[in-house]
UniProtKB/TrEMBL annotation, chain A:
Domain of life of the organism encoding this protein: Eukaryota
Keyword NAD attached: no
Keyword Protein biosynthesis: no
Name of the protein described by the UniProt record: Replication factor A protein 3
Annotated organism of origin: Digitaria exilis
GO molecular function terms attached to this record: DNA binding
InterPro entries hit by this protein: NA-bd_OB-fold, Rfa2
Any single Gene Ontology cellular-component annotation: nuclear lumen
Top-level taxonomy: Eukaryota, Viridiplantae, Streptophyta, Embryophyta, Tracheophyta
Family affiliation: Belongs to the replication factor A protein 3 family.
GO biological process: DNA recombination; DNA repair; DNA replication
TrEMBL record, chain B:
Protein name: Replication protein A C-terminal domain-containing protein
Annotated family: Belongs to the replication factor A protein 2 family.
Subcellular location: Nucleus
GO CC terms in record: chromosome, telomeric region; DNA replication factor A complex; site of double-strand break
Keywords: DNA damage, DNA recombination, DNA repair, DNA replication, DNA-binding, Nucleus
Length: 109, 261
């Protein structure tokens, strides 16, 4: 498990390859009960976010956390992006693919 | 297609480096973690170069952490997910204090300022810190970083000779002009020349001094800034407008970038 690295951009599909790693993603909140939030990723997957803050249903929420499985994230930081973020959320899904697979630049902090 | 693996983690380094076509831009969109693209531009360690282009002003978007209000300034750390960088915002006027009172720990903010180095460590001296209200700006910023990074790292195309004849006017405020050796890399070529002219025009729209103008700018203004012929600028304007990158504001002669917050 590598939960110490920089968070990688992920959508529902990419999350499968990120289990155990730090990720960042945006979901649209579908329901939220007792700290467990279920949201829809940019590519239509249902993701469970544990430890999420209270974000209203239908709002978009950015999550920084650790991928626990291919469908769940343990949240560290959540940010309410409001309900108008979805205007461009489909390009974000494509951007995830571009970022994570096309450009591999050696990077050091 | 989805085999990201280590490449996925390295994707954050995509934001390493970046910048406008340097002859016209003042604010280079950047990410905090742009380590591979940074290098010192001068021996005094005060300025940096990104992908070989000297940079004085940068724009960063990230979360504010560790805000400390002091007597004359406010310091905080900006975390945009690719790295962290210290930011210092001097408070000389009441408007500066009011600006910083509006932002708190955990808020997403847009920072414009000068990139400086001290004892090998980068930090930003901010002249503007504003809270993000439209979170699409975060995505726009990252995409902008990618675009500028690619623009700086790909082989430089050629421009028509008439553009080579353009010289910057030192009297303009907030201008960061390239050293002469940058300009000499350009020469005449087809579509790639058009892309560079587009970048030049769009860099005017994205100038921090312009980006806040509600009314936008006009073709004569851009002509005056870039010293380019009217027909070239109008062609670029029409293309950018068709692509949705700019839009009319108060009348058919004023344009504003769609990237404005």
């Amino acid at each position: 498990m590598d939960a110490s690295g920089l968070p990688a951009f992920a959508n529902g599909e990419i999350l499968k390859t990120m289990v155990g790693r730090r990720v960042r993603t945006v979901v649209q909140v579908q329901h939220n009960e007792g700290g467990v939030l279920v949201g829809q990723s940019t590519d239509g997957h249902q993701l469970t976010i544990r430890g999420a803050t209270d974000v209203p249903v239908s709002h978009f929420m950015e999550v920084f956390g650790t991928a626990e499985s291919d469908q769940s994230i343990c949240a560290e930081v959540c940010t309410d992006f409001g309900n108008s973020f979805g205007e461009i959320w489909r390009p974000i899904s494509c951007s995830c693919l571009v970022l994570n697979n096309r450009y591999m630049i050696p990077w050091t902090m | 297609m989805y085999g990201g693996g280590d490449g996925a983690a390295n994707a954050n380094s995509l934001f390493g480096g970046g910048g406008f076509v340097p002859s016209q831009s003042t604010a280079v969109p950047e990410s905090s973690g742009g380590g591979s693209g940074f290098s010192k531009a001068s021996d005094d360690n005060s300025n940096f170069a990104i992908n070989g282009v000297e940079v004085s002003t940068v724009r960063l978007v990230g979360r504010m952490l560790g805000k400390v209000e002091r007597v004359t300034d406010v310091v905080f750390t900006l975390d945009d997910g690719t790295g962290k960088i210290d930011v210092n915002r001097w408070q000389n006027e009441s408007s500066d204090s009011k600006e910083m009172a509006d932002v708190n720990d955990g808020n997403y903010v847009i920072v414009n300022g000068g990139l400086k180095g001290l004892q090998g460590k980068r930090h930003v001296i901010a002249y503007s810190v504003r809270r993000v209200t439209n979170f699409n700006e975060i995505t726009h910023h990252f995409l902008h970083c990618i675009q500028v990074h690619l623009d700086l790292t790909r082989p430089k195309p050629c421009l028509p000779s008439q553009i080579n004849a353009c010289t910057p006017t030192p009297g303009h405020a907030n201008q960061a002009w390239p050293p002469n050796n940058q300009a000499t890399t350009f020469s005449a070529s087809g579509n790639t020349a058009g892309n560079d002219v587009s970048s030049l025009v769009m860099s005017v729209f994205h100038d921090p001094a312009i980006i806040e103008r509600e009314d936008g700018i006009t073709v004569p203004y851009i002509m005056d800034r870039l010293k380019l012929p009217e027909h070239i600028i109008k062609d670029v304007i029409k293309k950018q407008e068709d692509e949705g990158n700019i839009y009319n504001t108060i009348d058919d002669f004023h344009y504003r970038s769609a990237m404005n917050g």
